[in-house]
Amino acid sequence: MHIVSAITGASGAIYGLRLCGELLAAGHSLDLLVTTAGFSVLKTETGLDWHGTEEEVSRRFRGHFGVQSSKMRYYEKDALMAPIASGSAAPDAMVVCPCSMGTLSRIAWGNSGNLLERCADVMLKERRPLVLVPRETPLSEIHLENMLKLARMGARIVPAMPAFYHAPRSVDDMVDFVVGKAMDALGVAHRLYRAWGAPEQS
Fold first, then answer.
1. Would you say 121 and 107 are in contact if contact means Cβ atoms under 8 Å apart?
2. In this structure, are strands 93-99 and 2-7 parallel, antiparallel, or unpaired?
């Protein structure tokens, strides 16, 4: 499956990185988008300073995940001639993780000012899976209205809310739960968390 994965400036860059790694490990091809604020949060929260040209960023991400160029490519935010900007070459699915409220708002209102927003617009108009993982609290009425609007258009809203019924023992366990929920919404199989009622793995 061809998936677009986007990282924005909301806190929770680790969710986006973990999700990319799991999608690649599952054999899917990935086009990566990172906003300017997304790069800043990535550096602040993970220590990874990956600003650079399109090829430099692509190389750093591929090196981080140990994948070949055929499996992963990064596009700059203004690369509006990229194939994923067109409905005739739309990816199979798109996920924005984490998704800032600003990005979510612009997607909700069709304000396609960069490649991320344009690709999300393509997913909505082509009726393809669009998964948004917002990370914000508390939520204002504006945030809630925008999420409702997108949900009614077919987008899946998967808030970054870790659960505790699977008895997480570490931050990684809580990250995996959120990432697993995003993969569920994409229809991608995983074993990142124990489903409710399933026996605990030894």
1. yes
2. parallel
Structure-block tokens of residue 97: 């993780």
Superfamily of domain 2-186: Flavin prenyltransferase-like (3.40.50.1950)
Separation of alpha carbons 149 and 48, rounded Å: 34
pLDDT digits (tens, 9 = 90+) for 119-143: 999 999 999 999 999 999 999 999 9
- pTM of the complete model: 0.93
Q: In what order do the strands lie in the sheet with 29-34?
A: 72-75, 29-34, 2-7, 93-99, 130-134, 156-157
Please state the φ and ψ torsions of residue 100, each to the nearest 5 degrees.
-70, 160
In whole angstroms, how far apart are CA 200 and each of 22, 174, 178? 21, 16, 18
Q: Which amino acid is at 82?
A: A
SS3 annotation, the chain: CEEEEEECCCCCHHHHHHHHHHHHHCCCEEEEEECHHHHHHHHHHHCCCCCCCHHHHHHHHHHHHCCCCCCEEEECCCCCCCHHHCHHHCCCEEEEEEECHHHHHHHHCCCCCCHHHHHHHHHHHCCCCEEEEECCCCCCHHHHHHHHHHHHCCCEECCCCCCCCCCCCCHHHHHHHHHHHHHHHHCCCCCCCCCCCCCCCC
| Residue-wise pLDDT tens digits, 11-68 | 999 999 999 999 999 999 999 999 999 999 999 999 999 888 899 999 999 999 998 8
